[in-house]
Amino acid sequence: MINPFYLTGIIPGKYFCDREKETKSITSFLENQGNVLLTSARKMGKTQIIRHVFDQDDIRDNYYTFYVDIYSATSLREMVFFMGKEIYQRLVPKGKKALNRFLGAVKSITAAFSLDPVSGNPRINLRLGDILTPELTLEEIFGYLEAADKPCLFAIDEFQQIARFPETNIEALLRTHIQKMNNCHFLFSGSDRHILEQMFSSYSKPFYNSAQPLFLDRIPKDKYISFVIGCFAESGREIDPDAVSYCYDLFDGYTFYMHKVFHDLFAQDTGKRVIRENLVSNTIETILGEGEHGYREQMASLSTIQKQVLVAVSKAGIVSQPTSGDFIKRNSLPSSSSVQKAMISLMDSQFVTYRMIESKRAYQVSDKFLELWLRVTY
Question: Which of these three, 185, 215, 245, is where a domain ends?
Answer without folding.
Answer: 215
